[in-house]
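Hi L.,

You mentioned the student needs an example of a multi-chain input paired with its predicted structure. This one should do, with 567 residues in total across all chains.
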Amino acid sequence: MNKLMIWYGELITGKKLFKRGLFFLTPGMLWLIFFLVLPGLILVLVSFASRGAYGQLIWEFSLENYKRLLGFGIFGWTPDYILILWRSVWVALVTTVLSVLLSYPLCFYIARKPERTRYLWLTIVIIPFWTNMVIRTYAWFLILAPDMLPAKIAAFFNFIEPGMPLYPSAFAVYLGMVSMFLPFVALPLFSSIERLDWTLVEAAQDLYASNTRVFKHAILPQTLPGLSVGIILTLVPAMGMFVVPDLLGGAKYMLVGNLIQQQFGSSRDWAFGAAISMSLMVLTMYSLYLYKRRNKDINLL
Amino acid sequence: MKKINLIVNITAIATLAFLYLPLMAVAFFSFNNTKYGLVWKGFTLDWYLKLFQNELILHAAWNTLILAVVSTVVSTILGTILAIGMDRFPWPRKLNTTFDLILHLPVIIPDIIFAAAMVVAFGSLRMLSSVFEPGLLNMIIAHITFQTAFVALVVRSRLVSIGKEVEEAARDLYASTTYLLLKVTLPLLTPGIVAGAMLAFTLSLDDFVISFFMAGPDSVTLPLYIYAAVRRVVTPQIHALSTIVLLVTVILVISMERFTRKVNNK
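Structure written out for the whole complex:
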């Protein structure tokens, strides 16, 4: 510890350096530990507590919340909560797949623009990325309103009654989710596609590879880094999404995000809310783990 | 090949339309001269003028601004110092991995879980002090927390990219620690710090979920106001407000883009 060393051109002892390092590290780390790590741990603890008659917490260890989540209630077994969890995973998967499918053409289109205007086009994708999600979600109210073309077409084919809007519905939730998360895939993907080596694509075509093979062997491996970041940036927040299903799905298409919000809002059952949060956390971590195992070297940010 | 190009172009344009049609509809109907319904009744700027007479909206705008500015300033300072502390000292490997994990927590945890954890934690802290009642202060603390992590990540990547040569040279010329920090490291870091601060500011303006969980009756922000309003009824006034928020976003995004492009071209 007291040995002299050269660090960034300075002759200094390890002890002094350590002290100075702590000086820089402490404020930020303490803040993060106090307001991020500790609350997280408290949330884990609370998920094992229970709710008192007035919504207060009762600190007695029980597995009641997790049992309830698995469907064992006072009225016997129901799959309601498991169904909501499963639906959240499903919606997140569908959203991710659709976003990826739409992002590739979009990125190719922008990448082929002349350099002068390319960044203008890119900015067009970045703007929705940063626009407030409440605005982006409720904006669909207008498109799906009864007076608008989509609802009239749907009414014509008898999907809905005339004069009714297309929301709340599962369809509206998917629409809102894909439009919400598409930029999250497109932007990281673009950074990969921009650097794509097109000579490889040409080589594959010269050797008479079919379009699918060109994509699979020449394009996909090269764009994998950007794609991976995009998939994670979509999959994780999509599973916990609460605004889109709340505004566009209503009670008809509840996701786990709404369930959590309910516990902290109207139901005031923090313990159960904490248990649901834990299950969402486990799902998130598990999907990250699965993904990481398949694609070894992903770097977020 | 031509056929594929055509399909790609059409899909791309359709995708952009899909992203922008709802937003354009909001902007379009904010000029509509009728209180209800989506039938065009003529052009008006009334809804914009009425925004500035609405006490609630002005108050919400003020809250949003205070929240974003205060949390950005604090988190930029905290995050920058933290990044220097993490990158410029020979910490043992294990410690570094732990720091890294903590820093990435806000990136990988769904924001609703972070919000839930904050509600529960502040609920317990309330026993110690009434400062932790739901309200603006709690929202500021929550925002600082996730912003600090993002700022530190951005600044640290800048620290890595500027390397150690310049700082070593300064030491060889007998720069003291304070001198080195103020005259060498910080000026080199400025682009990273500004980029981090801009990111933090936008994240704060953009946040709905965390504010929604933490807000008290007096600390409504614009996203919260819009959310509460559209759950009741959608009015042209909300469209006007949203259009203004959208414009501010566009300005922020364009200046952010210009800034990063300028730095990268240097």
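You could point out the following to them. The mean pLDDT of chain B is 90. Chain B touches chain A through 99 residues (CB under 8 Å).

Best wishes,
N.
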